[in-house]
Amino acid sequence: MTSISLKAVPGTPKTGAPDGGAPGAGRIRTARLVARTVVGVLLALYGLVSVYPFLWMISAAFKDQVEVVRGGHLIPQHPTLDTFIDTWNKLHFFDFFLNSLLVTLYTVVLTLVIYAAAGYAFAVLRFPGRGFLQKLFVSLLFVPGITVMLPIVLLENKMGILGTHFGLVLPFVNGGAPLSILLMTGAFLAVPTELRDSARVDGASELRIFAGVYLPLARPALITVALLTAIPTWNEFLLTRVSLNDQSTFTLPLGLQTLSSENVPHYNNLMAGALIVVIPVIILFLSLQRYFVNGLVGAVKG
Questions:
Q1: Above 70 in pLDDT, residue 299?
Q2: Is 92-301 CATH 3.30.9.10?
Q3: Are 173 and 110 in contact (CB under 8 A)?
């Protein structure tokens, strides 16, 4: 058999680019680099615009009233801590902080207990109306909270809990139901069913399986729910403004509003008070950020 040798014929044009790449590869790489540069610049500008109010708040908190009104440099020319001391005394910080802490803790604990159990029921148990109830709770995500403000106030007034911290905790817990159930259900669905079957074989009750098997594996989701509950509860202003009348029951955002009710607003005090209010939330989020991301990812996969 005669072997045929294939050789390049002299003068035949090459099909590839001179550098061995596909035709137009250089233009494609250039276009991608330009696109990435444009996107990076736009994101940087957006980030700068977004973070500037926060930077201005920090700057004003370290200035006196005269320098704030005068404006000018973002960096304080004569930084001082007297603004924080004055704001601390005016704001009755410890009392308002304690009220906010209690309301937030009660809300988070009740939310975790109730909706972790609800998520387990929707993910693991089988009962009539399960699918309908799950869809009903998820649909509540699209109901604006402001639309139920008046019914809540009227109902709490009839129950005699309007103006109390308990009257704040119940609406906060109820408002967190849709998202909390969605996250906990997704987290529990990601747990292998073989673990439940093994625990069943060992004679474990449903409550023991829930508390001893599923809850430890859903720790990122629990922390995520706790964060998503604690942050809006800590920062809530509208419902507290409508519900609370006695200054001894005020939370931090509502106490901060008393500073702006003065005849001549002191913006440095307002910004110092706002910084005091937001610092605990930032510390909490940064310390639990890893669990927060893992909880969201786990819930989506589930």
A1: no
A2: no
A3: yes
